[in-house]
Amino acid sequence: MSDTLVLEGLEKGYNRGKPGEVQVLRGASLSVAAGEVVALVAPSGAGKSTLLHIAGLLDTPDAGSVLLGGRNMDGLGDRARTEARRAEVGFIYQFHHLLPEFSALENVTIPQRANGLAKPEAEARARQLLTLVGVAPRADHRPAALSGGEQQRVAFCRALANGPRLLLADEPTGNLDPAASDTVFAALMALVRETGMAALIATHNLDLAARMDRIVRLEQGRVV
Ligand code: ADP
């Protein structure tokens, strides 16, 4: 398997040289292969979000490298980074952030339209994704009419709508009860298996982590 994501020697601090300075990452390195699901486990404040943001090209490290699909992302300009992020990365957050005034189907269609796809094709793909995660019967409902678990499954479909090669998730089941969390997690795994994406999933939930392919921990700014 080839490595979709390679992080090499990442360093990241906040408020450098000022009071309140924190060094969050201290040489963190990690590779995730295509089709592999890796759990990133660490206590709150250890730097999981920082690492995910750097991996997803939302933030830059003070030192170290990010390779996506074998391409080195260091030193890219803002525009090239934004383009690479749009094309290559899907994000899932703890809270779904769906657009409230649009239906589930539209929420999954919109990013594809923004990416230049025609409406019939975008809707067909959206229905396909919603079917895979078991929410197709609710496609025409707005988020407020869906359960928490359904909302989160729609958010997965939206994250995957443009076929990213890397999926990054920050506590994707963090606000769900155990039953919904199980359903949502099963949907996530089904999507990853179906698409062959690489996935890096930050979680506190050790039961879920144990069902992924591999667990890594973030300790004192390094991946162990
Ligand atoms: P986690 O996701 O594991 O909870 P974070 O990556 O959010 O951890 O944060 C790691 C540390 O960096 C925390 O101590 C946090 O307070 C600090 N931090 C995160 N973002 C900023 C920021 N923009 N400015 C200053 N400190 C930050």
Task: Give me some keywords for this one.
alpha/beta, about 220 residues, Rossmann fold
Would you kindly provide a brief summary of this structure?
The chain is an alpha/beta fold. The protein has helices spanning 48-55, 78-88, 104-114, 119-132, 148-160, 178-195, 206-210; strands at 3-14, 22-33, 37-41, 63-68, 71-72, 89-92, 166-170, 198-202, 214-219, 222-223.
What does this molecule look like?
It is a single chain. With 224 residues, the chain is an alpha/beta fold. It has a single domain, classed as Rossmann fold (3-Layer(aba) Sandwich). The chain is built from seven helices and ten strands. The strands form two sheets. The protein has a six-stranded mixed beta sheet with strand order 6-7-8-3-9-10, with helices on both faces. It has a four-stranded antiparallel beta sheet with strand order 2-1-4-5, covered by helices on one side. 40% of the residues are buried. The mean pLDDT is 93. The protein binds adenosine-5'-diphosphate. Adenosine-5'-diphosphate binds next to strand 2 and helix 1. The site of adenosine-5'-diphosphate has 12 residues, from strand 2 and helix 1.
- For the terminal residues, how far apart are their CA atoms? 21 Å
- Give the biggest beta sheet: 6 strands, mixed
* CATH architectural label: 3-Layer(aba) Sandwich
Rg of Cα set: 17 Å
CATH superfamily: P-loop containing nucleotide triphosphate hydrolases
CATH topology: Rossmann fold
| CATH class term | Alpha Beta
Strand adjacency order, main sheet? 6-7-8-3-9-10
- Taken from the alpha-carbon principal axes, the silhouette is globular
